Amino acid sequence: MKADAASLLEQARHAYDRRAWADAFELLRATDEITSLGPEDLERLLWSAGMLDRDQEIFATGERLFNIHLDAGRDDQAAYWAFFGGFRLLALREEGRATAWLQRAQRLADGFGRECAAQGYLVLLAAQKELLTGNDPASEGLARQALAIGERCCDIDLIAFARCYLGRALVRQGRIEEGIALLDEAMLPAADGKLSPIITGLIYCNLIAACRQVYALDRSREWTEALSNWCGSQPQLVQFNGICLLHRAEIMELNGAWQESIAEARRATQSLAHVIGNEATAGAAYQEAEIHRLRGEFAAAEELYRAASRLGLEPQPGMALLRLMQGRAEQAAATIRRVLATTNTPLSRARLLPALIEIMIAAGAVEEARDACEELQAIADRFATDTLAAMASQARGEIELSEDNPAAALGHFRAALTTWQHAGAPYLEARLRVLAGQACRKLGDEDSAELEFDAARAVFTELGAAPDRDRVTALIAPTNSRPHGLTRREIEVLGLVATGKTNRLIATELGLSEKTVDRHVSNIFDKLAVNSRAAATAYAFQNGLL
């Protein structure tokens, strides 16, 4: 029997080192049935259960570890496992049991006689609570205290976790570079595999959350890819996998890969199906709803927004923007006002203010839109990230355009456009091109307006953004006085096509890029319902276009 146990334990440890969590869990449990596992192997069993998201086994093993250390007089270690149990119960929103375990942890840590890591973890929990309530300076102070305890106790998990929370607290106060540097530093031991598995996953998630919160898009992409690789290297992983898929879905939406984003959101939902009322599950529903809204699939979008709401997530600003797209501007305005009235933290408000501005301009409440724009600019100045600056520039441009100041508006749109181009966000770039085209039209520059509208329509068509495509098509239509629907520029291009010139020669003659001419020719073919240059030329002569 002992030989069998030794063999199983060796296999279990090997599976654990390979991060084959399901194999390690089953082998460790099989060993434990033959002969009780020691503390180190019980820890392996608990971490394996954690990575498989098996809470019943987590709590049972954690309680065994607590009792083993308590019986051996190692109150500092017993306090740690009491803390861990309480921490996990808080995540599951079981407040009563969580409080009991955390009080037990505090009593043991205080009575230990000297400083121990468990005290640092308890201080860090207080930092987390302050972070959740928006008291960022208090969270910073507590995180620094926890970090100091971790360094004195040489607890690498606590050090990394404390740096993570300290970084988040600094980022939320507008100390972006300092905060993200701490988050990056927290990731070093995690990326090197030096931290316990659960702490590694939590640090990944906290880092990405901090980057998303301040719209640090490049960092969000970078760390989402790193999290994806980390999850992908552990095929048996359950915990964190759904969150990883959700982050990937958000990045895919930004990149313009909408169908792939929907697929990832649905995979995230399936991965989290066993969790009731989970924030990530609600986030996956909201993420899919957003793409259905942008594609004009309003019934599907509404159903998913409602699903997100049932799971505990406020489905805004998406649902308010859906109402605006449905022509229900008053309802959209009432909803977005209501949500902003109960949203206090600047970064959370920044997520809602662009929608408020769009809705208020549509509803004719320009003064309210201007006030929101000023607030958004103040947030952008405070947090100083390129994306927030672009959001503020776009908002200023929309206000100027609504007040018939197209030259000023165009300057703001051009500034924001550069950021969205660098970010690789085709939908947001196309939306700005529509606004820039409207400003150009008001300035009498119809050629530039047509170029902006055509470029935007091509992106909307490729993405399947039907409402935006139809809107920009309607903007183009007023310039088309004849049934063929060709713009003046397209008629000019058609005339050169009729002379037998290639797209390259046409581009040179008109001072355009060859790609732009290609798009004009494609539009001509579509509008005239022809499929060759000869047929387009024939149509032009037959209908007196040339």
Can you characterise this structure?
- With 546 residues, the protein is mostly helical.
- Among the domains are: 249-315, no CATH class; 481-542, Orthogonal Bundle (Arc Repressor Mutant, subunit A).
- 79% of the residues lie in helices and 0% in strands.
- It contains 29 helices and no strands.
- α9 runs parallel beside α11 (197-213).
- The longest helix is centred in the first third of the chain and has 18 residues, at 136-153.
- The chain is elongated, with a radius of gyration of 29 Å.
How many strands, which pairing sense, and closed or not: the largest β-sheet?
none
Average pLDDT score: 91
Strand content: under 5%
Structural class: mainly alpha
Helix content: over 70%
Shape: elongated
Tell me the number of helical segments per DSSP (H or I, 4 or more residues long): 29
User: Could you give the order of the helices and strands?
Assistant: HHHHHHHHHHHHHHHHHHHHHHHHHHHHH
Backbone CA Rg: 29 Å
Oligomer: single chain
DSSP, total strands: 0
> Span between N and C termini?
96 Å
What low-confidence regions span 5 or more consecutive residues with pLDDT below 50? none
Q: TL;DR of this structure?
A:
By secondary structure, the chain is mainly α.
Keywords, separated by commas or semicolons:
mainly alpha; Arc Repressor Mutant, subunit A
Secondary structure elements and their pairing?
Layout: H1 2-17, H2 21-34, H3 39-51, H4 55-71, H5 75-91, H6 95-110, H7 117-132, H8 136-153, H9 156-172, H10 176-191, H11 197-213, H12 217-232, H13 241-255, H14 258-271, H15 279-294, H16 298-310, H17 318-325, H18 329-341, H19 346-363, H20 366-383, H21 386-402, H22 406-423, H23 426-442, H24 446-463, H25 466-476, H26 488-498, H27 503-510, H28 514-528, H29 533-542
Helix pairs in contact: 1-2, 2-3, 3-4, 4-5, 5-6, 5-7, 7-8, 7-9, 8-9, 9-10, 9-11, 10-11, 11-12, 12-13, 13-14, 13-15, 14-15, 15-16, 17-18, 18-19, 19-20, 19-21, 20-21, 21-22, 21-23, 22-23, 23-24, 24-25, 26-28, 26-29, 27-28
